[in-house]
Amino acid sequence: MTSPSAKSSATGNVPRHVAIIMDGNGRWASGKSKPRHAGHRAGVKSVRSVVEAASQRGVEYLTLFAFSSENWARPEEEVNRLMRLFVDALRREVDELHRNNVKVTFIGALDRLQPALRDKISQAEEKTAGNTGLQLIVAIGYGGRWDIIEASRAVAKKVADGALQVDEIDETEFARSLQLGTTPDPDLLIRTGGEQRISNFLLWNLAYAELWFTDVLWPEFDAKHFDEALLFYSGKQRRYGHTGDQVKVVGC
Ligand code: IPE
Ligand code: IPE
Ligand code: MG
């Protein structure tokens, strides 16, 4: 069957939106007797491969979990190194992303970031705003619960201002105020690093995502693993509460 948000390709249905929890950098580094930040640095190569693979396979949206609201609690040294790595990665990668027609946007509590990183983020968003290829969404300082609270505040404010009636609050209206706004929900969630949990990622938007977990640590993840996840996805029947027979008949 073809879900509303999938399309056909030689390998079957390609998810329109893939979200990835890029986990396992620290363990990759420990396994090589390196400091944790070496693992984060090594992970940039995997981001490059996955962005390229996603573009080539016809994925429209790729959302990467780079730093969670809970990751602020890590040792200051690791947080500082990560923030510097984000600045460096943006400095190095944005021209190439732009050449490849990738549109980059960021979600999360970005106002908590240092000005140098916020500047790089704005520059990347501005430079790539008109691009029509893959939409790359990077989550930094993002938490699913934070997102829902912020959206609730925005909706409450609209009601208080008289711009919205309480009865008009429905799923579509609420989702509009979430960080992903009108972006279609992820069809496929990939988590590397062996854990099988959501870790406060897109709690609302992942409601019907297909979940694919791998023990592969993020710095080892490449296009071949990405294709394994796409193959897993192509074999899924998405029922959204219907029976399998209903889905076969109406293709809902
Ligand atoms: C994911 O790798 C990167 C971030 C959370 C920033 P980790 O740093 O969590 O790596 P592990 O899970 O400790 O191996
Ligand atoms: C999730 O990984 C966040 C990111 C990959 C950015 P964590 O390593 O922080 O998740 P937990 O703490 O193991 O749940
Ligand atoms: Mg981890």
Explain this structure to me?
This protein is α/β, with parallel strands linked by helices. The model is unreliable at 1-11 (pLDDT under 50). It has helices at 25-31, 36-57, 76-99, 115-128, 144-160, 171-176, 223-234, 244-250; strands spanning 6-9, 12-15, 17-21, 61-68, 103-107, 135-142, 188-191, 210-213. The protein has one domain (14-250): Undecaprenyl pyrophosphate synthetase (3-Layer(aba) Sandwich), CATH 3.40.1180. The protein is built from eight helices and eight strands; from the N terminus they run E-E-E-H-H-E-H-E-H-E-H-H-E-E-H-H. It has a six-stranded parallel sheet, sandwiched between helices. The structure holds 3-methylbut-3-enyl trihydrogen diphosphate (IPE) (2 copies) and magnesium ion (MG). One 3-methylbut-3-enyl trihydrogen diphosphate (IPE) is lined by residues 21-23, 65-68, 71, 195, 197, 199.
List key phrases describing it.
252 residues, alpha/beta, Undecaprenyl pyrophosphate synthetase, six-stranded parallel β-sheet, two-stranded antiparallel ribbon, 8 strands, disordered N terminus, binds 3-methylbut-3-enyl trihydrogen diphosphate, binds magnesium ion
